[in-house]
Amino acid sequence: MIEFLKGLSQVHNFFYSVIWFVVILTVLVFVHEFGHYITARWNRVRVEVFSIGFGPELFGWWDRAGTRWKFSAIPLGGYVKMFGDSDASSGLPAAGLARLSPAEREVSFHYKRLGQRAAIVAAGPAANFIFAVAALAILFVTYGQPFTPAEVGQVQPGSAAEQGGIHAGDVILQIDGRTVHRFEDVQQAVRLNPGVPMTIVVARDGGEQTLHVTPGRTELTDRFGNHYEIGLLGIARSGMEYVKRDPATAIVQAGEEAWNLTAGTLQAMWQIIKGTRATDELGGPLRIAQMSGEVAQGGVVAVLWFMAVLSINLGLINLFPVPVLDGGHLLFYAAEALRGKPLGHRAQEYGFRIGLALVLTLMVFATWNDLVHLGIGSLFKAL
Length: 383
Hints:
Layout: H1 2-42, E1 47-62, E2 68-82, H2 102-106, H3 114-142, E3 145-147, E4 152-155, H4 160-164, E5 171-175, E6 178-179, H5 183-191, E7 198-204, E8 207-213, E9 216-221, E10 227-232, E11 235-237, E12 241-243, H6 247-274, H7 285-296, H8 300-318, H9 326-339, H10 345-374, H11 376-382
Antiparallel strand pairs: 1-2, 3-12, 4-11, 5-6, 5-7, 7-8, 9-10
Helix pairs in contact: 1-3, 1-7, 1-8, 3-6, 3-8, 3-9, 6-8
């Protein structure tokens, strides 16, 4: 009986996570595709289909402009098909495009100027970044922005911090003359300077003290045997606060936070490529679904944060210069700008085939990571 109830609980959690995953992904896909759609309409391109999901249509409707808005069976993305496209990827023109009438060419995506086509393609990822900034700004105004004071919570015995005279309760104000605002500023400065003497100004007992500390050296070894050194002081933060912002400041801070999240994602990807970060950290739809269910239990604030992070990742991934992704289209447009004419039809076709193969390979690899991470046996048992 206990095992039966445990199984029911696992199944319930699984479907709870899937539902939240579909809801969150639907919103983000809609934002992305709406960026393409609205920019296409501004440039007088006829949009034939706006689809959330792929595969067979579940339900939909027509609008006055002749666009079919629909929800499809596989909720793992979406697309906007424009007049003159051969398929949903908007990569290659349809056969017989040269036989279009002048009126039809006026509303065809492939007859628009290079700048217009590039703007339509780039608008999807841009919409994801704008959504992330808006979501974060709303959180910073209503709930507050997470802010980690540069206050020392703990000092590890025998560490560089203890030897340099840093005490628990000290607030770090400056490092080598540079003002410190957050604990993360301390981490960044120290990690990049192993074994390098530093002058640190701290606030203590109502006054300021200047200390001279040399960060310890800690060696990291990646799976390829490469060695890396980082600096450590041996201190821990005291806690986290939330600071409410006015609307203008919230937008600025949200933009900075989105930039930091983007830079952090790119850094993590580069570390995976170099081998300093394990490839099993790459997650796919199953892990995102699991995280969606867990985040949803944390309330609206946690969901908005999660959606902002996912939206940035969605926009960033789509900018990668891989054919079938938006970045691949932009790469072809850059080549067109340099050559003065588009790449040949065969070159584009092969490019899209290779791009599709790369994307599918990455998806399979990420899904396998998900299965290993979640436990294949327990997952099928829950199902």
